[in-house]
Design brief:
Elements lengths: L5 E12 L2 E7 L15 E8 L2 E8 L10 E6 L6 H8 L5 E4 L18 E6 L3 H14 L4 E7 L8 H10 L4 E7 L8 H5 L9 E5 L2 H13 L7 E4 L25 E6 L2 E6 L6 H7 L17 E6 L2 E3 L7 H5 L2 E3 L3 E3 L6 E3 L8 H34 L1
Parallel strand pairs: 7-8, 7-10, 8-9, 10-11, 12-18
Antiparallel strand pairs: 1-2, 1-6, 2-5, 3-4, 3-6, 12-13, 14-16, 14-18, 15-17
The chain binds flavin-adenine dinucleotide (FAD) and FE2/S2 (inorganic) cluster.
Length: 387
């Protein structure tokens, strides 16, 4: 099913910094239900461009738990098409086509009340992070640490709002700003100095790629389990005039007749239909793995390849580290060999307690299967001895 777009109206434009504007959006009454959202989610926008259409995602910086209107923050990217167009042209009263809110960069409802929360934002990466911050402070008692890195003081987006939250919640919110202009890039030591409760805390990271690399590697060195780390990558899809033709003829690849997909703690067997992506096959089989853009850039459909091989048409949403540890995008993947293919949709990206739990229950069911097999073998031996 492709992404559906609805017409929203710009109700306010707020100049945040020289490079960034926020846009408040109003939703027609009949769509209010569809536009319910969780802090950390994003909208996908479709805009006309020359003789084709372009899509881009922008995270919601507003917080539904506080009843705030939908708001996005868009920072200019040098040479970028849409970020500059929106900053220059989108005015109050204009219409814009947007998807319903999507995304798995959200607070885990099952750990809302307890685990410490670490929020790492770089530049425009603060948009989903401030929504998570407001939500955590509004509806939980969690202690929160925000590290926000920017080039300089003038680049800070939502600075007044952050200052106000820090003053109102000084008992459980620590805010650290880092400015590259005042002592160079963020260092691992600065990140390490903030860490505590690394076995139970949750970590949300969003910012430019080098910033995310630094945070991810520092957390890994500190022994933080990857299930506790949530990552949002701000990438653009390849526009239709920039798409690179897939060098591989997908139809020529070998494929198994079925593949296994772990979803919601259970393994499902899915028939593979040649030419379709793994996401389409799963949907045909009546399953609903998480997904959003279906174009390889939002990362909502990440899954771990446990056995077998896949070929991805594109994978903007994944880092080199993701690819090295066997993460694939279901919406872009087809099997690339006839060996058995098993994927795990539970254990990546949306690293919630339920996903952790489902991987425990998976381990439990694997142990149960081993125990049942051992029991059968023992039974057979006993019967042989008796006869
Ligand atoms: C889930 C998600 C949430 C996001 N949330 C936000 C947010 O809250 N705020 C925000 O500001 N951004 C956000 N982004 C990023 C946003 O979607 C865009 O990627 C960003 O605004 C840049 O888009 P653009 O059209 O301006 O730039 P693009 O036109 O995509 O260009 C980006 C850069 O790549 C270069 N480039 C790309 N293709 C080519 C090519 N073929 N040849 C030469 N140069 C090329 C451009 O020159 C430019 O430097 C988010 C992204 C995702 C996936
Ligand atoms: S659904 Fe967005 S990357 Fe697959």
């Amino acid at each position: 099913m492709s992404v559906q777009f609805h017409e929203l109206t710009v109700s306010a434009v707020i100049r945040e910094t020289a490079e960034c504007s926020s846009f408040e959006l109003s939703v027609p009454a009949e769509l209010h239900e569809k536009y319910q959202y969780k802090a950390g989610q994003h909208l996908t926008f479709e805009l006309p461009w020359e003789d084709f259409k372009i899509t881009r995602c922008y995270s919601l910086s507003s917080c539904a738990d506080l009843g705030e209107p939908l708001k996005i923050g868009v920072k200019r990217v040098e040479g970028g098409r849409i970020s500059n167009w929106l900053n220059d042209n989108l005015k109050v009263g204009a219409s814009i086509m947007a998807s319903v809110p999507e995304g798995r960069f959200v607070l885990d409802p099952e750990t809302r009340s307890s685990a410490p929360l670490f929020l790492f934002a770089g530049g425009s990466g603060v948009t989903p992070i401030i929504a998570l911050l407001k939500s955590a402070l509004a509806i939980t008692k969690r202690s929160v640490t925000l590290l926000y890195a920017n080039q300089d003081r003038d680049s800070v987006i939502y600075g007044d709002e952050i200052d106000r939250l820090a003053a109102e919640h000084s008992d459980r919110l620590i805010v650290r700003h880092h400015f590259d202009a005042e002592g160079g890039y963020l260092s691992p030591a600065e990140v390490r100095a903030l860490l505590h409760d690394t076995d139970t805390a949750e970590f949300y990271v969003c910012g430019p790629e080098p910033f995310m690399e630094l945070i991810e590697s520092t957390l890994a060195e500190a022994g933080v389990h990857e299930e506790l780390i949530y990552i949002e990558r701000f990438v653009s899809p390849a526009d239709s005039d920039r798409v690179e033709v897939d060098a591989i003829d997908v139809a020529s690849l070998e494929a198994p007749e079925t593949f296994s997909l772990w979803l919601d703690g259970r393994s499902r067997t899915v028939p593979y239909v040649s030419g379709k992506t793994l996401l389409q096959c799963a949907q045909d089989a009546g399953l609903q793995p998480a997904h959003s853009c279906e174009s390889g850039y939002c990362g909502s459909c990440m899954a771990n390849v446990k056995t077998g091989k896949v070929h991805m048409r594109t994978h903007e949403a994944l880092s080199k580290r993701d690819i090295a540890r066997g993460v694939a995008l279901l919406c872009q993947s087809v099997p690339a060999s006839s060996e058995p293919l098993e994927l795990d949709s539970d254990s990546t990206s949306f690293r919630t307690a339920s996903a952790v739990k489902s991987s425990y229950s998976k381990r439990a069911s694997q142990l149960a299967a081993v125990a049942a097999f051992a029991f059968m073998v023992a039974g057979t031996l006993v019967l042989r001895l008796v006869h």
